[in-house]
Amino acid sequence: MxxxxxxxxxxxxxxxxxxxxxxxxxxxxxxxxxxxxxSPDSGDSAGIDSISAxxxxxxxxxxxxxxxxxxxxxxxxxxxxxxxxxxARVASEANxxxxxxxxxxxxxxxxxxxxxxxxxxxxxxxxxxxxxRFPEGEPVLEWVGEQGEGWERELPLALPYHGGIRHxxxxxxxxxxxxxxxxxxxxxxxSVAFDFGxxxxxxxxxxxxxxxxxxxxxxxxxxxxxxxxxxxxxxxxNAEGKVEWKVWRTLQGAPALANGFWRTRHEVTFYRLSGLxxxxxxxxxxxxxxLDDANQLRPITxxxxxxxxxxxxxxxxxxxxxxxFDLEAAFSSETPTAEPPALTVPFKIEGEKIHSFxxxxxxAQAKLHGASLEQTKLxxxxxxxxxxxxxxxxxxxxxxxxxxxxxxAFAAQFPPMATSLAKPPVDLRAALTQVEVxxxxxxxxxxxxxxxxxxxxxxxxxxxxxxxxxxxxRPVHIEVDPAHDGSWETIFKGYxxxxxxxxxxxxxEALDLIARDPKIRLREPxxxxxxxxxxxxLMQEDDGEDIFGAQxxxxxxxxxxxxxxxxxxxxxxxxxxxxxxxxxxxSGAGNSYFLATQTPETGGFH
Length: 606
Hints:
Number of helices: 5
Radius of gyration: 33 Å
Number of strands: 36
Low-confidence stretches: 1-6, 44-57, 338-347, 351-362, 590-606
Largest sheet: 13 strands, mixed
Strand content: 35-45%
Strand order of the largest sheet: 16-15-14-13-22-11-8-7-23-12-17-18-19
Structural class: mainly beta
Oligomer: single chain
Shape: elongated
């Protein structure tokens, strides 16, 4: 442990009221998860099961953080137990650091009248055609029979007047199958209703139904009993290379397949959100994900393929609706900033583009975090009002027909504009009683520590403005001149810790100050990395790249002093001590920043 004796070497200790480098170079950054903006006591938008996604903007007028709201805006929260919650009321309970949550769109739902063949005239009807006819001009989904000769169309004479297909007679002890005549569009969401009329008379064995889409996924209802549950299945290869159906997820939150289940109407909705599969069962919302061979989350997709239904031993009317997310919702908001800008000329940032400042050097950047935001638009403006800077931004959230967008956070970063001049450092030399600097090898003591003894009477008598300098986290420089020839060398740079900046109440004649080297900036609260830390969100312009923790640490240090970043790890290379193939802090796999923040289907993180 090297100890510096002040009787041998001349020494001086500088404490800076403001970091001399940071005063000129610290950027102003904001990062706002949208979950933090909403109040649970205000109105929500329409739910996913609503027939129309349009609703009056008054639903969101109670949200004071939002203005100019229009369109089918919705807030969604995906919990790690596989359930989904919607509406502004759940935002206050969401944790953006560990949950997928944010704004999305409620879709339009178009009922398609299912039709199969042309039914024969009813016996005894004479010349009167009593066959079911769908309302003129409404869309029709054509089906063809694959197995069984009794498929027919049906138009219920009660709400919701939605045409479907049914097999007559009820298929006891045999399986009947039908498929859509045309292929269902790839990745397009749908809603399917099963209006059951009971188990077939004289049917032996368990009733069953399979509804298949995309040629790979299917919903399966099989059996009778309080322990039987609906399951999702998907096609995959077995050990022999044969493709077969395998259970993917049991829907524990769905109703049990008890006897009453097969005499009730059930409606299920499936659609894609941020690479996940969301489904609603009579209002119960669930989600699931899919992992690849490397145990990494991958987007769920399905190809263009006919819808198929297989029925065994049960009477059922099948009705299908189509979901569409080719919609727009918009809102405006504002964000207070950490410091007021010096420039009063507003400037705009659109999308993820970077524009130069209108009256000087520097660049600014704004970004929306989420998924499927290719068509979403962002416009942001920085304004100075009564000496306080704020960011005003407008968002137009736009989806694609086959996928719902997800908007999680807004972030903006600006070069320094409030360039407060650094105050002259305070020299504590006249009041020093002891100085000790301790360091060691990284394996045993990865940081350096300085202990500085100071006489309070001497401070008050000889050191001007010392009260402005001896405060928590003020920068400290310790220099020595061993030869007494004016060749000063810096032996320590760091920050004062809160533990030693006040007297203990018993010995009011001295202060025992403790300082740590710049790595203290990596510890809370000096540089807390959380959902409000803008530089981490914006440190990479290319969303396709991975982000590693060492890069974040290097950037944190570099925000305060450039040399601390360039000498990081002794080489300036953030990856000096990384093992090959080390996992990233946030993955950019799939060209999506957001995928890494999603929870996989196992309900935990990997």
